[in-house]
Amino acid sequence: MTNDRTTAETELAPDAARVPLVQPVVEPPPNVAGAGRQAPAKQPEGQAPEEIGADRRMKQENPAERKAKPRPKTLLELLEYAYLEPGKKLDINKQDLRAVAVDAVDADAEERFLLQHATQDLTLAVPAKLLTALADLAQDSPVMQPRLLQLVLGALVSHPVFRQYGAALIDSSVEPAPDAERIIRAVDRLSRDPWWQENAESLKGKRSVLTSNAITAFLLLRVLRDGWPLGRVIDEVLTPVRVLPTSMYTAPNAVALTAAQTSTALAVLTNHFEQKLASAQHETGLTCGQLVRETRRADTAERVGGELSSQLEAVQENVLSLQSTVAALEARVREERSDRVADKSHLIDDYEMLRTRTIRRLSDQVQLLSDGLHALRHGSHAVAEEFLDRALTAIQNEVAKLRESDGGSR
To answer: What is the DSSP secondary-structure string of 221-232?
Structure first.
């Protein structure tokens, strides 16, 4: 298992298409019956059993004399070779595939042959095995790969399973795009379609074969043409596997694992999920570290927040005190303004009284002075002197009263 897994990692690292995870289902040849026992071969007419046994022993003793099966030299011959026995595995190696030539002259003949024989491949066995063989070559067939993918795409589009996904197969950006789950549902719908009833005898017991081949061909087309990564392929491969029942006991599950067709596929899956597990563990470690840092940051923020809350309470208390002081000052200002208004009113009244009194007294003294001046002009000096004395006395008394009302400052 370790060597297989190492091989799988080496092959799959540069290109995910080197090891197909879903093996194309090969239909059993007609001479297979029961639990893998070969049915007895039909005895040729006119030949005794002893002669048949002798001929068989002769062929076994002289394997070099067996007639070698011709190898395909062109892409058209490869199609003929594949469709000759669609239910059997494609018996061709990488060296033979590399030797296949692609000639533009044969393009029309290739398409005619494909259209003629693709409709007879009811279980899509040929596209699956052609793409499986092509996946082994990977980047070693830059000329043949695009042409063969184009032909296989034509075979897939013409099959009823991909009836509603033809445009999406041709252009990967078209929606809805097929996937493993939709292919399974398409096969399920097809099993109730008149087309299935018309081919019921040929398709009897081959529903799972058609499903597996359709998924295999679709995934390998996506890998070889669209460059799907290995993780995407594994997710699609596991879609039909998830619905399979598993045992709650260890022994049956162990049998299922050890009885797998290839240890390479198990190695690929193991490596893929180990990488995902390692990535998840790494992300978990980063998340834990981030959690610790965020926890410390939260503790610091809580402590600083407590300190700021205390400071805020002190500031709020100070604000309340200042507001009380401001309110008291405003009340005092209003009171002072009210007092000033009353004082101003009193002062105005006092001023008016003083003004009136002063005008009246000065008017009296002016009259008295006028009379003294009149007496002086008529030679009454004694009268004039009396009037002047009385006027001066009155003026002096008024000045004294004004000084007293001013607080005696002058």
So the answer is: HHHHHH---HHH
- Are 7 and 265 spatial neighbours (Cβ–Cβ below 8 Å)? no
Do residues 79 and 151 lie in contact, with contact meaning Cβ atoms separated by under 8 Å? Answer: yes
| Most confident listed range (182-186, 257-261, 399-403) | 182-186
Question: Which three-class secondary structure state does DSSP give residue 74?
Answer: strand
Residue count (the chain): 410
Give me the residue label for tokens 């303004």.
Answer: 337
Other CB atoms within a 10 A radius of the CB of residue 407 amount to: 7
Which tokens in the block code for residue 100? Answer: 């296949």
In sequence order, the β-bridge partners of residue 38 are: 32
DSSP symbol at 31: T
Tell whether the model's pLDDT for residue 229 goes beyond 80: yes
Q: Facing residues of 197 across strands? A: none
- Rounded Cα distance between 52 and 44, Å, is 8
Q: Indicate the pTM of the whole model.
A: 0.52
What are the CB-based long-range contacts (under 8 Å, 24+) for 110-113? 110/75, 110/76, 110/79, 110/151, 111/151, 111/154, 113/76, 113/79, 113/80, 113/83
Lookup result for tokens 């009193």: 346
